[in-house]
Write a structure and sequence with these properties.
The chain is α/β, with parallel strands linked by helices. The chain folds into two domains: about 60 residues, no CATH class; about 325 residues, Divalent-metal-dependent TIM barrel enzymes (TIM Barrel, Alpha-Beta Barrel). Strands 3-2-1-10-9-8-6-4 form an eight-stranded parallel β-sheet. Strands 5-7 form a two-stranded antiparallel ribbon. Strand 2, helix 4 and strand 3 form a beta-alpha-beta unit. Helix 1 crosses helix 13. The longest helix has 25 residues. It is globular. The two termini are about 30 Å apart. The mean pLDDT is about 95.
Length: about 400
């Protein structure tokens, strides 16, 4: 009897059908962040980072153009099972010499064609950093109306581009808006920048596109250590009021806050939820995700509460100190492993024990699950998908 058959029987003894689990796991989309491939520089010809963004390391092989980046993604996907999407930033199109408030769908036609050929779907993000008009640390909340209009136009055009992706791929592209607006030291007026940001967002989202719009909060970052205009509370209110998705990034909160603890709470009030799964180390440092307790907890919150139709999962990290393709593969596979572990949990049994105040059974079962043979189920999943069960360079 194979290791999988033994595992299948062991899980059946606790009421888990591994065949159903494998079918469900294979259909859960995970969006892979393109910026791991080039250290978040983009292809505009700027060649530097600013606005709360910093990639470290000098490992050789960073992509210098879109063709190189696409080739790297293709190589990574060879070792990634499951339904994979690719998450683009606006600075990764054929945009050299094109101002951000002038980008058009044609600048991303090569990406759309490539995605169709590779059987991948695309998500999108406006790029509101590393630009002369973000040098003051403010964009959509800038006191200069002309600066705000520049970025408003950029964001509107990005939504239009995401709409074209939706048309071409037959499923909705997720368009996520994040800005690094804030102040390094203590501000006097914390309200007015948020009023300006709200007004800018109202203009950006005025027209409807067949996409999933999301807004992403942040606690602090490089250059905005004391105040962030787009805080969690601001965007939670805005997303709830305007019926758009809330993006929660694992590194965008206080170091003691975990987004796994927030998922069920916000799910009651927002129409959609976008997760940017990352690994903060003492601050928003965007490390490659590992199979740690928080990653498994994030997956369990989504699976336990049947939120797959509401939650969209994307990864957000960049590490230039290691092989970039391997970083993608490790992160994407770990996200799927976490989802598998969550799917193999006898949730209804645990829920009943909890509702019956049988906390002893809850403790015993959750502890016993830690040594259940989920790895054998993972190996079977990879084998059926034609992907390596173990990823070794």
């Amino acid at each position: 009897m194979s290791m999988y058959e033994l595992a299948k029987k062991q899980y059946a003894d606790i009421g888990i059908d591994t065949e159903s689990v494998l079918s469900t796991l294979d259909l859960i989309p995970v969006s892979m962040n393109c910026w791991q491939g080039d250290d978040v520089k983009g292809f505009e010809g700027i060649g530097s980072l600013s606005g709360g963004i910093q990639a470290t390391g000098s490992y050789p092989g960073a992509a210098t153009n879109a063709n190189e980046l696409r080739s790297m993604i293709e190589k990574a996907v060879l070792s990634i099972p499951g339904k994979t999407r690719v998450n683009l930033h606006a600075m990764y199109g054929d945009v050299k010499g094109v101002e951000r408030n002038q980008i058009e769908p044609e600048h991303f036609s090569a990406w759309a064609q490539w995605a169709k050929e590779q059987n991948l779907s695309l998500d999108f993000n406006p790029t509101l950093f590393s630009h002369c008009k973000s040098a003051d640390g403010l964009t959509l909340s800038h006191p200069d109306r002309a600066v705000r209009e520049f970025w408003i136009e950029h964001c509107i055009r990005c939504r239009k581009i995401a709409g074209v992706f939706t048309e071409k791929q037959g499923n909705k592209s997720v368009n996520n808006l994040w800005i690094a607006d804030g102040f390094k030291d203590n501000p006097i007026d914390t309200l007015t920048p948020r009023i300006r940001l709200k007004e800018s967002l109202d203009e950006i989202f005025k027209d409807k596109y067949d996409i999933i719009d999301a807004v992403e909060s942040k606690l602090f970052g490089i250059g905005i250590e004391s105040y962030t205009v787009g805080s969690h509370e601001f965007y939670l209110g805005y997303a709830t009021k305007n019926n758009i998705a809330l993006c929660m990034d694992a590194g965008h909160y206080h170091p003691t806050e975990m987004i796994s603890a927030k998922i069920s709470a916000v799910s009651l009030f927002v129409s959609k939820l976008l997760l940017h799964v990352s690994r903060p180390v003492r601050w928003d440092s965007d490390h490659v995700i590992i199979l740690d307790d928080e990653l498994i907890a994030i997956a369990r919150e989504v699976i336990r509460h049947n939120l797959l139709d509401k939650v969209h999962i994307g990864l957000d990290y960049f590490d230039g100190s290691i092989d970039r393709v391997s970083a993608w593969v490790v992160g994407m596979r770990n996200m799927r492993k976490a989802l598998l572990i969550a799917l193999l949990e006898p949730y209804l049994q645990l829920q009943k024990a909890e509702w019956d105040f049988d906390f002893t059974k809850r403790l015993i079962v959750t502890e016993e699950l830690k040594t259940m043979p989920w790895a054998a189920v993972w190996n079977e999943y990879c084998d059926r998908a034609g992907k390596p069960a173990s990823y070794l360079l």
